[in-house]
C-alpha cells in the first residue's frame, strides 16, 4: 500500500548521489507549479543487509538532508523527508500508485543499484503515475526544447498534455515529432490555438531514427523528452540510452 505521505505528492527517490539531488530540484519545480507536496524518500534494505552501508540510517539522514538543502537553496520549496526499509524499486513502484509523479536520478534508483538503466526502465514501465528520469549533471538546460513523439496511440492525448505543461512551466519551445502527415496538420491547427507557446511540428519518415539522433547526438539541445509508456523503445530511453531527461506518461507498455 502507498504511504499516505506520498498521496498526491511528487515523490523523489534519494540515494545520496548528485543525480538524485538534481532530480529533487527538478521535481520541486513540478510540485510548486502544481501546488503539490514534495516528498523525498530514501529506501534502505532490511537491517543488517550487506548491500547497505555500515551505518545505513546515518547515510540516509545525510543524503536526505543534502537533497532537502539543495531544493531549499534552488527553489525555496519545503520538502518532506522519509527513510524506510524495503526494496528500493518495489517501494517506489508502490508509492507511485498514490503519487502524482515519481522522479529519480539517471545514475540509479537506489544507492545499491548496479543496473541503474534497467531499474529506471522497470520503474517507468510499472509505475502507476508519470516517472521522470533526470540526467546528471545538467538537468535544466535553459533554452533546450521539450520533445514529444506524437502518434495515434491511446495515450497520445496524455503525452501532448504533459509535454505542453512542461514547455509552459520551463518556458521552453515544444517540438512534436510524428510520421503521419495528417497528424502533423492537426498539430499545426492545435499550435495556432496556443500562440503563447513556441511549437514546432516535424514529420519524420522514420521517427525512431530521428529521435535516436535527436535524443543522443543532439541531446544538448533537448531539455526533456516526453513519451508514453506503451512503446518499449521509450522505456529503453528512460533506462539510459537517451542523453537527456525523460518523462514517461500513459498506459502500460505493450
TrEMBL record:
Domain (UspA) ranges: 9-135
Protein name in the entry: Universal stress protein
InterPro entries: Universal_stress_UspA, UspA
Family: Belongs to the universal stress protein A family.
A UniProt-annotated Pfam family: Usp
Amino acid at each position: 500500500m502507498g504511504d499516505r505521505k506520498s498521496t498526491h505528492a511528487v515523490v523523489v527517490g534519494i540515494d545520496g548521489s548528485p543525480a538524485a539531488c538534481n532530480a529533487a530540484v527538478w521535481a520541486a519545480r513540478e510540485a510548486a507549479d502544481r501546488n503539490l507536496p514534495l516528498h523525498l524518500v530514501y529506501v534502505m534494505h532490511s537491517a543488517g543487509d550487506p548491500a547497505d552501508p555500515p551505518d545505513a540510517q546515518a547515510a540516509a539522514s545525510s543524503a536526505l538532508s543534502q537533497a532537502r538543502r539543495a531544493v531549499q537553496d534552488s527553489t525555496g520549496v519545503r520538502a518532506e523527508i522519509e527513510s524506510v526499509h524495503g526494496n528500493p524499486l518495489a517501494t517506489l513502484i508502490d508509492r507511485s500508485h498514490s503519487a502524482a509523479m515519481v522522479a529519480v536520478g539517471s545514475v540509479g534508483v537506489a544507492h545499491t543499484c548496479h543496473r541503474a538503466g534497467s531499474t529506471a526502465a522497470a520503474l517507468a514501465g510499472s509505475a502507476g503515475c508519470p516517472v521522470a528520469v533526470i540526467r546528471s549533471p545538467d538537468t535544466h538546460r535553459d533554452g533546450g526544447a521539450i520533445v514529444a513523439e506524437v502518434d495515434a496511440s491511446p495515450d497520445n492525448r496524455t503525452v501532448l498534455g504533459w509535454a505542453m505543461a512542461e514547455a509552459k512551466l520551463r518556458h521552453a519551445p515544444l517540438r512534436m515529432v510524428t510520421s503521419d502527415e495528417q497528424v502533423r496538420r492537426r498539430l499545426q491547427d492545435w499550435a495556432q490555438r496556443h500562440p503563447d507557446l513556441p511549437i514546432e511540428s516535424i514529420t519524420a519518415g522514420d521517427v525512431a531514427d530521428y529521435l535516436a539522433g535527436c535524443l543522443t547526438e543532439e541531446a544538448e539541445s533537448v531539455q526533456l523528452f516526453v513519451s508514453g509508456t506503451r512503446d518499449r523503445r521509450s522505456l529503453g530511453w528512460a533506462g539510459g540510452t537517451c542523453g537527456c531527461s525523460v518523462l514517461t506518461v500513459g498506459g502500460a507498455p505493450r
